[in-house]
UniProtKB/TrEMBL annotation:
It is found in: Cytoplasm. This is Ribosome-recycling factor. It comes from Sulfurifustis variabilis. Residues 19-182 form the Ribosome recycling factor domain. The gene is frr. It comes from the Bacteria. Responsible for the release of ribosomes from messenger RNA at the termination of protein biosynthesis. May increase the efficiency of translation by recycling ribosomes from one round of translation to another.
Amino acid sequence: MDGIKKDTETRMAKSVETLKTDLGKIRTGRAHPGLLDQIRVDYYGAKTPLNQLANISAADARTLTVTPYDKGTLQAIEKAIRESDLGLNPAASGTLLRVPLPPLTEERRRELVKHVHKEGENAKVAIRNVRRDGNHHLKELLKKKLITEDDDKRAEEAVQKMTDRFIAEVDKLIAAKEHEIMQV
């Protein structure tokens, strides 16, 4: 029974971590190196993550700089950033790329907030699915008479408290990201 609770809690925590990662990829108008994490560069025929080919840093609040470890990959990195769905237009400056971030319009901010809410809802659904699986495993133990009905009720209450805690954490993450996006 404790194993089921621990597994349920671990899986719920992974759902929250996945949400944090997904929210980190959403642009807020400020430059941060994590913005380019999902970009893959065609490097000698293999799709390689950009952060393995170059050093990415924030030059200022609106500009990222990308310094390739291998100078020969500059054009491939520039092409990968340009073709990404981020809408960025990098400019080569000697041996490094400058990636200016255009300011967000009010309409785009609202779209991003909707996207954040959708991601949050997906995380909540994942957490509820984990709760359902945990309760299902508890019911199986009850059917096999490995636990009593009282143990089952207590365990289900514990799983529900976990669910409530993780959903509250998701709500907090969504609210923080929404505030970050709507700040001008």
